[in-house]
Amino acid sequence: MGDKILMKGNEAVAEAAIRAGCRHYYAYPITPQSELIEYMARQMPLAGGTFLQAESEVAAINMVLGAAACGMRVMTSSSSPGISLKQEGISYIAACRLPAVIVNVQRGGPGLGNIAPMQADYFQATRGGGHGDYYTPVLSPSSVQEFADMAPLAFEIAEEYRTPVVIFADGMLGQMMEPVVFPDSYAPQKDPSAWALGCKREGEFCNHIINSLFIDPAVLDQKTRELFAEYDRIRQNEIRYERYNLDEQPSILVVSTGTAARVVKSAVDALAEEGIKVGLLRPITLWPFPYQAVAEAARGVKKVLTVELNMGQMEQDVRLALAGSCETAFVGKAGGLVFTPEELTEIIRGYAS
Question: Considering the entire predicted model, what is its pTM?
Answer without folding.
Answer: 0.97
